[in-house]
Amino acid sequence: MPAFLTGYFWDLGNAEFWVGVGLVVFFGILVLVKVPGMIAAQLDGAATKIQSELDEAARLRAEAEALLAQIKLEKAEAEAQAADMLKAAEADARRLEEDAKVKLEEALARRQTLAERRIAQAEAQATAEVKAAAAELAIKAAEDILAARLASQTRDPLVDEAIAQMGTRLN
């Protein structure tokens, strides 16, 4: 049974009674001065501050996650762009290699054609020079024969016939 239900507790000489009365008066003063309201206001202020800090942390976390997603997207785009650039560079290199091969083959063909033309020209020139030398030798031989004939004053019909045909055969 609680002590305040007994008759001894309500005795004015009892120290426990006066402790109880002091306690009730103390709580009454606290209520009159509105201490519970102040404590509640401070607790509400602290709760509001904590809630705003939590909201700020949640906002910062959302921003960080959005920034991370954006960075991952940009990284993926950069990697894709780098891969595209690499493919384009490889294609350009292959195209340049093919162009260089074609140009080299064309240059070699031009040089071969030029060399063949020069060879043909040299052959034609050599043939002309041989013909000219043969003609000069024939003319010289004819002059020698004519000079010898004139010196001996004898006529040789074979020589006369050969001299007559010389103009048509040399040209």
From TrEMBL:
Keywords (alphabetical) are: ATP synthesis, Cell membrane, CF(0), Coiled coil, Hydrogen ion transport, Ion transport, Membrane, Transmembrane, Transmembrane helix, Transport
Task: Indicate the segments annotated as coiled coil, or none if absent.
Answer: 43-125
**Major place of residence:** membrane
Transmembrane feature ranges: 15-33
* N-terminal signal peptide: none
The cross-references to InterPro entries, in alphabetical order and at most eight, read: ATP_synth_b/b'su_bac/chlpt (IPR002146)
* Presence of keyword Calcium: no
Q: Where in the cell is it found?
A: Cell membrane; Endomembrane system
* Gene Ontology molecular function: any one: proton-transporting ATP synthase activity, rotational mechanism
Q: How does it sit in the membrane?
A: Single-pass membrane protein
Query: According to the lineage, what is the superkingdom?
Result: Bacteria
> What GO CC annotations are associated with the protein?
endomembrane system; plasma membrane; proton-transporting ATP synthase complex
Looking up NCBIfam families in the UniProt record yields:
PRK14475.1
Q: Give the UniProt family note.
A: Belongs to the ATPase B chain family.
The entry describes its oligomerization and partners as: F-type ATPases have 2 components, F(1) - the catalytic core - and F(0) - the membrane proton channel. F(1) has five subunits: alpha(3), beta(3), gamma(1), delta(1), epsilon(1). F(0) has three main subunits: a(1), b(2) and c(10-14). The alpha and beta chains form an alternating ring which encloses part of the gamma chain. F(1) is attached to F(0) by a central stalk formed by the gamma and epsilon chains, while a peripheral stalk is formed by the delta and b chains.
Query: What does it do?
Result: Component of the F(0) channel, it forms part of the peripheral stalk, linking F(1) to F(0). The b'-subunit is a diverged and duplicated form of b found in plants and photosynthetic bacteria. F(1)F(0) ATP synthase produces ATP from ADP in the presence of a proton or sodium gradient. F-type ATPases consist of two structural domains, F(1) containing the extramembraneous catalytic core and F(0) containing the membrane proton channel, linked together by a central stalk and a peripheral stalk. During catalysis, ATP synthesis in the catalytic domain of F(1) is coupled via a rotary mechanism of the central stalk subunits to proton translocation.
Can you say what this protein is called?
ATP synthase subunit b
Question: Which species is this record about?
Answer: Brevundimonas halotolerans
Its taxonomic placement starts with: Bacteria, Pseudomonadati, Pseudomonadota, Alphaproteobacteria, Caulobacterales
